[in-house]
Amino acid sequence: MIAIVDYGAGNLRSIERALMRLDEAPVITGDPDTIADASAIVFPGVGNARAAMDRLRSSGIANAMISAADSGTPLLGICLGMQLLFGDQEEGPTTGLGLLPGCGVRLPTSVKSPHMGWNTVRFTENGPFAGEPDAIFYFVHSYLIQPDRPGDVAGITAYGVEIPAVIAHGNIWGTQFHPEKSGDVGIALLDRWVNLARSVVAS
Amino acid sequence: MTTTVQNGLTTRVIPCLDVTGGRVVKGVQFVNLRDAGDPVEMAAVYNREGADELVFLDITATSDSRDTMVDVVRRTADQVFIPLTVGGGIRSVADMRTMLGAGADKVSINSAALRDPALITQGAELFGTQCIVVAIDARWNPDLRTWEVYSHGGRRPVGRTVVEWAAEIELRGAGEILLTSMDRDGTGDGYDTSLLEAVNDVVNIPLIASGGAGNAAHMVEALAPGRADAVLAASIFHFGQLRIADVKSELSAAGLPIREVPIDA
């Protein structure tokens, strides 16, 4: 069972329906025990980093996600959810889950913020999508991640600066864009992650 | 260590569906539609044709029609996986929560934001800046030699200039501005590019141009650097005068970055 983490912000219905289209039966939940026991976890996110982390910590969800990720449960962070996989966040400021080393910083002032719309992602040579053609996804965010390990970056987009768009480190994946809002291309990427999650369960 | 790189963000083409009582108001002349008045089916068609986002505008916005709109949003979000903005009759944080919960990605507020500008900040803090679109209805005032803000569907001047209100909207936390020229709306004469430039000059959030689209060349004009980031149109798409794929071809030919329309559209 895939858990979609609910901490009170934004549209969770689209990711739920996208996973249902892939023959999954996801559960939208804010219950730490359910999240800890899930076979895979989607960590969505819109809104303010600090408000999100305060809520995730006080509810016990943060610890549930950290222990699940440590035990190998596939975890997919989306947008703010991806940023909060990392450590210090300029937005707030606050500190994310710290599952991956790196920090979140504001977009440069040379471009409009939020970065809103469809932008091309180039997949890197060190991720699960190495060698795959560029693809276009829907972004909406005002902060970006600076990972400490270049090898964690599986996809890059360009908006004033190079922005890590896909993160992959073992069982921990993240997308700065919204796959559930990126049409068929986004559904195809989710399908890849769902297959990873199924293979972990099967092994 | 970061170096400046080319910006790959594409321009956006956004059809707007005017909805009342759960039905699309303006006539639709697409072929192969079982129900041309069904906003859910229209949304699916636009998605297939390559729309980059969709906007639903509830033009009556009574409480009854809002309940119907929630159902429309829910059914659309169940099958269309591109961003969806809902506007019309959203007056409170509770209204925003209802629409976002139903599957909208953004809510558009207009008169409610003028009446209570704090609503912009409250929404942005609760749901994120990117969820809050503020719509401005603008009309040129020849005496003042600037554009004035109108409320209540463009019927009532509120006594503020568009440029000043746009700047305040950004400061209060809005993520995007939907700017309609009342002078051009329905004329087909093209977007008011002077208005777009005046507002773009004072904000650093995305700007959607609305009002006046008559052909694809008008969209090229509106999306030129220093103007809008996205173009919205309603009747020109509904009546089949203009296909989204054709707009994208013209934008691309003019050197503007676009999202390719899938071949099978």
Question: Can you describe what's shown?
Answer:
The complex is a heterodimer of chains A (203) and B (265). Chain A starts with a strand and ends with a helix. Chain A has a 9-stranded mixed sheet, sandwiched between helices. A two-stranded antiparallel ribbon of chain A has the order 5-6. Chain A has a two-stranded antiparallel ribbon with strand order 7-10. With 203 residues, chain A is of the alpha/beta class. The mean pLDDT of chain A is 95. Helices cover 30% and strands 32% of the residues of chain A. Chain A has a single domain, classed as Rossmann fold, CATH 3.40.50. Chain A has 6 helices and 13 strands. Chain A is globular and about 45 Å long. With 265 residues, chain B is α/β, with parallel strands linked by helices. Chain B has a single domain, classed as Aldolase class I (TIM Barrel), CATH 3.20.20.70. Chain B has an 8-stranded parallel beta barrel with strand order 1-3-4-5-6-9-10-11, surrounded by 7 helices. About 2% of the residues of chain B have low confidence. Chains A and B meet through α1, β8, β9, β11 and α6 of A and α3 and α5 of B.
What is the CATH T-level topology of chain A?
Rossmann fold
Number of folding domains of chain B? Answer: 1
What topology, given as strand order, has the largest sheet of chain A?
2-1-3-4-13-12-11-8-9
Please count the helical segments of chain B.
Answer: 10
Low-pLDDT sequence parts of chain B: 27-31
Total E-strand runs of chain A: 13
Please give the number of β-strands of chain B.
11
> Would you list the SSEs of chain B in sequence order as H and E?
EEHEHEHEHHEEEHEHEHEHH
Q: Which percent bin holds the helix content of chain A?
A: 25-40%
Strand content of chain A: 25-35%
Biggest interface in this structure? A-B, 45 and 43 residues
